[in-house]
Amino acid sequence: MRLSRKKVAALAFLPLLLIGMSAYLAVQFLPTTFEIQEIHISSNISKGDPLTVGVKLAIKGTPITFSKAIIQVERKQDTRSVSYGVTLDKELTIGTHTIKITIPPIIADNKTVLPLTIGTFEITSISIAGKPSTKPMITKQKQLNLSFTVNRAQVEERIREHDFRENTTLEAWETSNPKNLEYKTDSNRGLVITNPTSEVVSFKLRKWVNLTGIPAIHVNYTGGVDTIIARANDTALYPILQTIGFSSFAAMDQLGRQLVEIEFLISADNEIAIQNIRAPTKHRAIFLAVMSHSWDTGSGYDEITDDIAEASMRFEQALNVSFIPSPPRYFDYPATTDLATIRDYAVIASEEAFGIPGGWRAETGYSAENKGFDVLFIATNETADHYGIVFAQGGEPTNYLVIAAQSKEAYGVRVQAEWVDNLFQHELSHILWALDRWSSSDPPSVMTKPSSVQDALQMLNSGTLWLQITNWLVEDQIRMYTYRDRFEF
Ligand SMILES: [Zn+2]
After folding, report:
1. 112, 169, 220, 480: which sits with the fewest CB atoms below 10 Å from its CB?
2. pLDDT confidence of 248, banded at 50, 70, 90?
3. Distance CA 416, CA 228 (A)
């Protein structure tokens, strides 16, 4: 029998049709569901880092759109636990997939705020909700006991070949190497440079260094130096003893580095020994428990946490410190303009807001009693007697501060919306023990307040009022960099 051309075409399509039908049947009749197969977390993170959770899901039947995950995290020390809820909005096809969920360093739910401070934590459960297109929502939960540790950050050395006692070559440095100096290496004393002449001779070392987050380089040397001069990109710097401070505003190359030049003026008929040149740094995260009363986001102010983030970036750049805020918790107080009274109400309210028995514990630096928080940050838009205050105890700053944006301090002038981040920067600098400076004796900086009404007007007009500028003086940067260790325990 001869088949017509039409029949051949029809027969050729038959198997395809059958395959199509079987796939169709499978889609219709295999149950649509998913399983949480595995959870991965990094077992070690540093304080201030987010925690990444990898969730491996197996999807059967039809694609599923995942909408929400809830992860329960518990602090081992006191079994405080919090539910971290995250919106996923992810459609996944049949098969296995791993989704990544990032948990921030301070976790909050409606009742509890849990900072991932140094210590051991556990993920105790995870629950995931997903919806197939034609079926109701499916929710799966898995009980777990996945622990992870939050550690102190490690020291990072920005000048690698720094120790001239161990590595006596100057390979990593560009040097002026004047012919009239004599060089020798000594495993105890380091690089010994002798000036046999009867005149002062200059010896220079140059190197590109990433100075982001470090305020100073330490030059350890002994011997007959008339002067040590340091420059970063041709800006003269300020040696304080053997520490050279940097302003964070010098020009950088594409890799974020600055050209550092250290010049030793070696005295006549004398010698120096350079042991090492170091630029060590360590990231430090400081957790803020934020309390707010009537913060005026309705009429121009940003969210408190946005302005803290703005200020924090400046601390990161200059000092490798980040201030990480909790979501604000609200508190109330009776009519008063006295910041100490406002503080006292916030301290009482912090018991319920942050689970601190008896309320916030005042210390200079870190307190183990504050549930993993480092600083109580109290903000109000009500009129008060200052824009802001950090209370002192025994001459040192305590671990709480109050900000009042509507103030009697400057003739009842409200803090302008664009000044708020600077006000935060100023008060957080006090937490790290930078002191107020005054225009009669100090150059403009975020800490330099006007000494008189005339100064205030002049500074405002020239844009150098402390609420308008963000720089610190180098001495203050070095002082804060030293004091930040009070928040390590
Ligand atoms: Zn101040």
Report:
1. 169
2. low
3. 43
Least Cα distance to 180 among 201, 166, 156, 159 occurs for 201
Say if residue 1's pLDDT is above 50. no
pLDDT of residue 253: 72
Q: For residue 247, what are the CA distances in angstroms to 140, 173, 279, 428?
A: 53, 22, 14, 18
Residue 463 to residues 28, 165, 455, 456, 469, Cα–Cα distance (Å): 70, 49, 12, 10, 7
Fold of 284-432: Collagenase (Catalytic Domain) (3.40.390)
Instruction: Compute, in angstroms, the gap from residue 466 CA to the centroid of ligand 1.
Output: 10
* Ligand 1 centroid – CA 364 distance (Å): 17
Same fold, 31-151 and 284-432: no
Distance 109 CA to ligand 1 centre (A): 34
Determine the CATH number of domain 156-281: 2.60.120.260
**Domain coordinates in residue numbering, the chain:** 1-29, 31-151, 156-281, 284-432
**DSSP secondary structure string for all residues of 5-31:** HHHHHHHHHHHHHHHHHHHHHHHHHSP
Q: How close is the Cα of 488 to the center of ligand 1, in Å?
A: 24
Contact 222, 327 (CB under 8 A): no
pTM for the predicted model, two decimal places: 0.86
Which of 219-233, 316-330, 421-435, 442-456 shows the lowest per-residue confidence on average (mean pLDDT)? 219-233
Instruction: Look at residues 284, 285, 328 and name the one whose alpha carbon lies nearest to residue 305.
Output: 328
CB atoms within 5 A of ion ligand 1 belong to 436
CATH 2.70.50.60 fits 31-151, yes or no: yes
